[in-house]
Amino acid sequence: MNDTTTHYRWSLLRAGSLLLDGGGMFGVVPRVVWNRTVPCDNQGRITLAHNCLLLKAVGQENAGRILIESGSGDKFDEKNRAIFGLTGDTVGQAVTKTGCACEQIEHVFVSHLHFDHVGGLTRRLRPGETANWPPGNGGEGVKITFPNAKVIVQRREWEDATGGQSVMTRTYLHENLLPLRDRLHLVDAPLPFAPGYHPKRDESPSLALAHRQVEVLPGIEVFSIPGHTWGQQAIVFLDERGRGVVFGADLIPTAAHVGAAYNLAYDVEPYTSTVTRRWFLQAVAENDWLLVLDHEPGNPLCKVKPDGKGWWMLVPEA
Fold first, then answer.
1. How crowded is residue 188: how many other Cβ atoms within 10 Å of its Cβ?
2. Number of domains in the chain
3. Range 169-176, long-range pairs (CB < 8 A, 24+ positions)
4. pLDDT score of 165 more than 90
5. pTM for the model
6. Contact, 12 vs 55, CB < 8 A?
7. Per-residue burial over 192-222, b = 16 or more CB atoms within 10 Å of its CB, e = otherwise
8. Considering the domain boundaries, does residue 191 fall inside one?
9. What is the mean pLDDT of residues 75-97?
10. 67 inside domain
11. What are the CA-CA distances from residue 229 to residues 127, 157, 192 (Å)?
């Protein structure tokens, strides 16, 4: 990116909370370790947030808005809402509270297609509405939340999600994915390492990150951060202050996940997550980017600094 790059004003949106199993969220890290700083309820669940971003290009008053992430949405039945501790808050409500109409959203970036990241792109029907999916169904089905928006995701993620290529097929839900088929913008960002290559734990990709970033919209780039899923992507843009802002999704979902071994039990390749986290944190620190954590219930904005021990730490940012 250079001085002529489009800059964006942005807002942090909170699309409700989410409860997930603490053991699942910390993988091989024992509960006696993570529970020192991250409390859980009597069912072993920890509180997470659905953090999303709303962007508007500086100096382009008539331009459509851009959304990053969408949360879980409102389509779960009562049983599943209780399991996941969903409050009924949605990204559509959060967008509307800013004074922006859902129809003004022209592009949505999603890091990957698990239900807690893409579920908010469709919603329950309201009285008198006709469903967008299944087509022609007036009594049931779902409605597109942002009817004028293209959805930007990695091609590998879409193919894995719709083809059942995952250890977590039940998080790729048809009612979240199939309504989006005709509004996709699929991206093929270069992988950090060649397919089939097994990098060392502390190895950096041979191709510099700048050459692996793909500009999808003016001033907004994506790049591959595999591990949680094979097709997960990060999104980076410049804000109106000239800061690089990066959304790293479930590579580092909360501030408690900065450590090398802090992978999710839900990761398709935990070792790959560790390798990716290392070069990602280094890149964020070297570029002095502001990192936005997708599930952090506290302050999700931070800078990445060396910890003096060969790794990195997160420093909260106002």
1. 11
2. 1
3. 171/114, 171/115, 171/116, 171/266, 172/113, 172/114, 172/115, 173/115, 173/119, 175/75, 175/122, 175/133, 175/142, 176/73, 176/75, 176/113, 176/115, 176/118, 176/119, 176/121, 176/122
4. no
5. 0.95
6. no
7. bbeeeeebeeeebbeeebeebbeebbebbbb
8. yes
9. 96
10. yes
11. 37, 7, 14
The Cα 200–Cα 272 span in angstroms is 10
Say which amino acid occupies 307: D
Alpha carbons 100 and 124: distance in angstroms, whole number: 20
**Which domain, by its residues, includes 274?**
8-316
Mean pLDDT of the chain: 95
E-assigned strands of the chain? 8-21, 45-57, 65-68, 105-109, 122-124, 142-144, 150-154, 184-187, 214-217, 220-224, 233-238, 244-247, 290-292, 301-306, 312-316
What single-letter DSSP state applies at residue 19? E
What CATH number does residue 201 fall under? 3.60.15.10
Tens digits of residue pLDDT in 223-265:
999 999 999 999 999 999 999 999 999 999 999 999 999 999 9
Going by C-alpha positions, the residue among 260, 305, 267 that lies closest to residue 286 is 305
Strand order in the sheet with 105-109: 8-21, 45-57, 65-68, 105-109, 150-154, 184-187
Q: Is residue 132 part of a domain?
A: yes
Look at residue 124 and tell me if it is in a domain. yes
Rg (CA), the chain: 19
Contact 67, 149 (CB under 8 A): yes
| Number of helices followed by number of strands (H, E) in the chain | 8, 15
Torsion angle (degrees, nearest 10) of CA 250, 251, 252, 258? 150
Structure tokens at 168: 């977590």
